[in-house]
Amino acid sequence: MSNDPRRGENNSSHRPETYEIIIIGSGPAGYTAGVYTSRAKLNTLLISGSLPGGQLMTTSEVENYPGFPNGIFGPELMMNMRQQAERFGAKLLDDEVVEVDFKKRPFGIRTHGQEFRSESVIICTGASPRKLGLRAEQEFAGKGISYCATCDGPFFKGEDIAVVGGGDTAIEEATFLTKFGKSVKIIHRKDFLRASKILQEKAFENPKIDFVWDNVVSDISGNKKINSISVRNLKTGEERNIPVGGLFVAIGHEPNTSIFKGQLELDDRGYIILTKNTRTSVEGVFAAGDVHDYRYRQAITAGGFGCMAALDVEKWLVEIRGAGL
């Protein structure tokens, strides 16, 4: 039987192609999983999703991924991983999974125009940062706007920086950014923080951090990169301009798990719950990367989880075949 994914069209004259492993999503987790499963000679289909390569495709320079002392551009890193997975025999399909059936094995996977079956699945659909919803936000993506201080903080040495948010993540990122920035302003829509008490105390005591209470970012300005933001006071309606060289948005993430509701056990935020190692609540379905990891959210940790999930799948397939299941 051919394993060309193009033959899996949803047509009564064709039976859906069946794979040993289907990886849903790309990025560091998906591509790393694809490298390991295909190298282990498992018949692998990787369905890349709506943004092949994930969030790193919208990132400029990546300085903290091991093995690249001079840094590497995010899209280049993802293309290298993709080519490596293909080199070992993984089939790649640039499409989006719109429905899954994990109620029976082989599992059913449907994209916009095709249908597949698989003995096992690794979910690597990631999580998307919540955005401000401003038109200029897209314009300045990678030009002063960031959603990850750990990833991009060192690019803003000596700059005036603004952080949007009031939870643990926002306060942690603001405190971290004081290592690099000349000043850090925390812009929060309320007059109190949701962050834990200890994080609040550290921020209040830090001489580099100032708070802009009861305000939201209403606009972003600049030429080739950000040079200022406009904020609006929600109580008075007053607008003012704040010069900044960087804007970090830390208002949360949304795991890309909507198609798995009712199929897998998710926590109250929508992240996939792991039962053991990278196993999910459904036998034969595994998860890797930001789709379950809301703590670290780094390319290197996502890649590590992709490796773990691939090794777990390989072992699981051996086990069930030995048991005759």
Describe this structure in words.
The protein has 325 residues and is of the alpha/beta class. 24% of the residues lie in helices and 27% in strands. It is built from 7 helices and 19 strands. The protein has helices at 27-39, 74-87, 135-139, 149-152, 168-177, 197-205, 299-322; strands at residues 17-24, 44-47, 61-62, 72-73, 91-93, 97-101, 107-111, 115-123, 127-129, 145-146, 160-164, 183-187, 209-212, 215-222, 226-233, 239-243, 246-249, 253-255, 285-287. The strands form 5 sheets. Strands 1, 2, 5, 6, 7, 8 and 19 form a 7-stranded mixed β-sheet that branches. The chain has a 5-stranded parallel β-sheet with strand order 10-17-11-12-13. Helix 1 (27-39) packs parallel to helix 2. The model is unreliable at 6-12 (pLDDT under 50).
Features:
5-stranded parallel sheet; alpha/beta; 325 residues; 19 strands; 7-stranded mixed sheet
Written as H for each helix and E for each strand, in order along the chain, the element string is: EHEEEHEEEEEHEHEHEHEEEEEEEH
Alpha plus pi helix count: 7
Oligomeric assembly: single chain
Helical fraction equals 10-25%
| Total E-strand runs | 19
Instruction: Identify low-pLDDT runs.
Output: 6-12
Outline type? elongated
Please state the CA-atom Rg, rounded to the nearest Å.
22 Å
Biggest sheet character = 7 strands, mixed
If you average the pLDDT, what whole number results?
92
**In terms of structural class, how would the helical and strand content be classed?**
alpha/beta
The proportion of strand residues reads 25-35%
Ends apart, CA distance between termini: 22 Å
